[in-house]
Amino acid sequence: MTQFPATNPLDPFLYLTRDHWESLATSTPLPLTPHEVTELSSLGDPIDMAEVDAVYRPLSALIQMHVESALRRHVRVSDFLKTTEEHTPFVIAIAGSVAVGKSSVARLLQRLLQRWPSTPKVELVTTDGFLFPNAVLEKRGIMNRKGFPESYDRRALLRFMRAVKAGRFPQEVPYYDHVTYDIVDDRVQQVQACDIVIVEGLNVLQAPRPDATGQLSAVSDYFDFSIYVDADIDDIRSWYVKRFLKLQQTAFVNPQSYFSRYADLSVEQAKEIANKIWSTVNAPNLSINVEPTRSRATVILRKGENHRMESVYLRKS
Fold this sequence. Notes:
Elements: E1 2-3, E2 13-17, H1 18-23, H2 34-40, H3 49-81, E3 90-96, H4 102-114, E4 122-126, H5 134-139, H6 154-166, E5 171-177, E6 182-191, E7 196-200, E8 209-210, E9 216-217, E10 225-230, H7 233-249, H8 267-290, E11 299-303, E12 309-315
Parallel strand pairs: 3-7, 3-10, 4-7, 10-11
Antiparallel strand pairs: 1-2, 2-12, 5-6, 8-9, 11-12
């Protein structure tokens, strides 16, 4: 185990090499099959059993330690206060850039955590459902800033998080369709009472901002544990372009797809479009809004150019 240098901006973190982190896996169960791992992986994010075994197996065990600690604390506080309030869900945030693979991390953790006896009910919510509908974004002139903080219905997301931490269930989350690239009016995700809620999204670790009453509030106020999936920006750009090219041959072919106009482009034309979208939208959002939140995470998972985790940064406790 190696600590960051004293001048490192992430000084509150412990640095763990992949070898060190992987060595922690031997005492942790791995209840997933190769088929399940393949099924859960995101497009362009080649997670296999070896990666799950080395990285996500010990991560799920670490999270379980935090969950169990929170449960013990709740029991002790309830005994002290002589109350009988039910324990509310443990909330995990997963943040990171577009195309960095945070969706795969979220789905894998959901499945792993569901296999622990103490947390069989794990709900996964993506903040895509809290994006404003395209009609609203177009009316406000910010369609080209989709994914930036201002493109989300922050009030609705905060209401949802307050309800989760108050133990009020079920809750409805708007449904986002990645084919039409928009909110679906007559469809919702029902979030039921559960042990853990995983919230995945670009901007979930944003610092507090004044709300309608002038008080400082942040979605992250309601998180018990947070993960930032990190990588070099050049690697993320490369992954984004490769994903775009794969989507061009699959999802974009669907006439209902928002991006169907790109389906007939040549490979070179598609690369040009993908790089333009990256440089004008995703890269600025990453550098201005997403990456600055990295130091607010509990754990930083650092990927190399092959999508494999190279190191782990763990906030000191």
